[in-house]
Structures are given as structure tokens and as C-alpha cells.
Design brief:
alpha/beta, globular, six-stranded parallel beta sheet, 304 residues, 9 helices
Length: 304
């Protein structure tokens, strides 16, 4: 298996580790922007889009900054190579981006936009359980402290803190909205509030609050960058009782009693999603969160 990576940041390192666990003989290539770029052991550098076709990779991982995804996709879409795209798909929605999404879909290129929480055991289990329940209310909360995300790095310099780089809690934490879409489907109406006036003092949004309306219930989704004691939970209030999914602990509590727990950690989901992509998406056996679906979710996330 030969894989080309575009963007060798921290998230790419997670994908590389997962690839090596799936295939110890994997050949890794990286498209670099400068001949002076760092050389990593076991990764061959190439420097021009024109070189990609000659290398014949089995698929491409796009993990460069979100603000560069559009130009990158424009450059590689004509090659017809399967695409594994790190979330979020873009930093904005517009006619030009919508046209590119439709073009890639018409070309029939297998695509998948990373949504690794769909592979978290507790979320898979609650999705199964909830089909038998009458839902009255859904509450999602995801808050953590941005300065702790990358130790030793000034948090104000990373893309998460900078709107022009495609940052902001509303798209950086798109996972929460993605799994709500995955479990409950597309909402009928959406309302949102975005702010960036916390003590973090960054230019990108550090707070987002959504209300998604469904037929019989509403889903409230709160995201922030400034909570020091991290919390990541899904609460589903049903006619029979209340389910609380703790994503950090990978557990489900029902009416105060633990009914499900898994030793799987969130980092394990990176390997599982790549295995799904390699065995199912590329071979067109099964897919979800294609480029079209991811664009629809993104549109819901950034609409004010």
C-alpha cells in the first residue's frame, strides 16, 4: 500500500501511526511546499502536484490547514485517486466550493471526510439503543482548554485560534455536530450563536451554541475552547429515562446506572476509521461522510 500525505502536522502523525499499525510495509509519501522541508524517517518527499501521478498512490490523505483544502482538492481531483480528507472539509461554504464538491462526486472519486467519533464504541452503542426510544430532548456539551491542546506551543499562533487559517470552535469541534447529524439526521431548523469574547483573547470563535429542531425534540449543542476541566458529553432525555454518554470515558449511564463501558480510547478510533476507508470506501462497498455529506454538515455548522 502506498499513501500520499499532504500536510504533515500533528493530525497527520496520528494517521501515519494508524497506517503503520494496519500495514507494516506501507509506503509513505509527502507533498512538501519547500525543498528545505524537514525529512522524516520512512517518508519520501515530493514537491510538485505533477509528481503525484507518477508515484501512483493508492489514496491521498489531505491534512494540511483547512484554509488550503479547496486549492488542494482542485489540484488533485483530476487524478481520480481516492481521498481521505481531514475535517473540517472547508473553512467556509460558497458557490465555488459547492461546485467543486459536486464535480468530485460526479467523477465518482471515493471520498471520506474524517469523523473518527463515529467509530467510538459508546456512540455506536447509543445510536443502536436510541432506535427503540422516544426522544424528548438532546443536550451536547464539549468544552476543553485550548492552551493545553499543544503543550509548548503558543496557542494564539495555531490555526484553531485564527479565523483566517480556518480556525474557530464552530468548525474545529465539528465532530459534535457531525455525530448528532449521524445519529439523529438532518435537522428541520437551526439556530446558532458564535462568540469570541472569553479570557482567551483570540480572533476565532471560542464559543458556539446551536439549537437544532427536529420533529419531536430539540438538540442543544454547546462548544467552547476555554473550559479547564474538560467535559465531553451527550445527554438524551427519553420518555423512559435519561442516557448520558461520556465520550472521554467511553461510557453510557442510564438513569444513574452504568450500562455500557469500553476500554477503547478516542485515539484508537483513528485506526478503525482508516481501516473502514481502506476496506470499504475505496472498494465502494460502504461509505458515509462522503465529501457531499460533509459539505452538508459544514453548512449547518457555520450558518449563523
Amino acid at each position: 500500500m502506498k499513501v500520499l500525505i499532504i500536510g504533515l502536522g500533528s493530525i497527520a502523525c496520528k494517521h501515519i501511526q494508524a497506517l503503520k499499525e494496519l500495514d507494516t510495509s506501507v509506503e509513505l509519501l509527502a507533498l512538501r511546499s519547500s525543498i528545505d522541508a524537514t525529512i522524516f524517517d520512512g517518508i519520501k518527499n515530493i514537491f510538485h502536484f505533477e509528481d503525484i501521478q507518477a508515484e501512483k498512490p493508492d489514496f491521498i490523505i489531505i491534512s494540511n490547514p483547512t484554509s488550503l483544502h479547496f486549492e488542494t482538492l482542485k489540484n488533485v481531483s483530476s487524478l481520480g485517486i481516492p481521498l481521505f480528507i481531514e475535517k473540517p472539509l472547508f473553512d467556509e461554504v460558497n458557490n465555488e466550493k459547492n461546485a467543486l464538491v459536486k464535480e468530485i462526486s460526479i467523477l465518482g472519486i471515493p471520498t471520506y471526510v474524517a469523523c473518527n467519533l463515529r467509530f467510538l464504541d459508546a456512540l455506536k452503542e447509543i445510536k443502536r439503543i436510541i432506535t427503540q426510544e422516544r426522544v424528548n430532548e438532546v443536550n451536547i456539551y464539549c468544552g476543553s482548554y485550548l492552551p493545553n491542546w499543544r503543550p509548548g506551543v503558543d496557542y494564539k499562533t495555531v490555526y484553531s485560534a485564527n479565523k483566517e487559517m480556518g480556525g474557530g470552535v464552530h468548525i474545529d469541534l465539528i465532530h459534535e455536530l457531525d455525530y448528532v447529524y449521524w445519529i439523529f439526521g438532518k435537522p428541520q431548523e437551526t439556530h446558532s450563536v458564535f462568540k469570541n469574547n472569553s479570557s482567551l483573547n483570540i480572533f476565532a470563535y471560542d464559543y458556539a451554541n446551536y439549537l437544532w429542531e427536529y420533529d419531536n425534540f430539540c438538540a442543544s449543542i454547546v462548544l467552547n475552547y476555554y473550559r479547564r476541566d474538560a467535559k465531553r458529553e451527550l445527554e438524551i432525555v427519553c420518555e423512559s429515562g435519561t442516557y448520558i454518554v461520556n465520550l472521554l470515558k467511553n461510557t453510557i449511564v442510564y438513569n444513574g446506572q452504568l450500562i455500557f463501558e469500553s476500554l477503547q480510547q478516542i485515539k484508537d478510533t483513528y485506526k478503525e476509521q482508516l481501516a473502514f476507508f481502506i476496506h470499504s470506501v475505496i472498494n465502494q462497498k460502504e461509505t458515509f461522510n462522503s465529501i457531499e455529506e460533509a459539505y452538508n454538515v459544514l453548512n449547518l455548522c457555520i450558518t449563523e
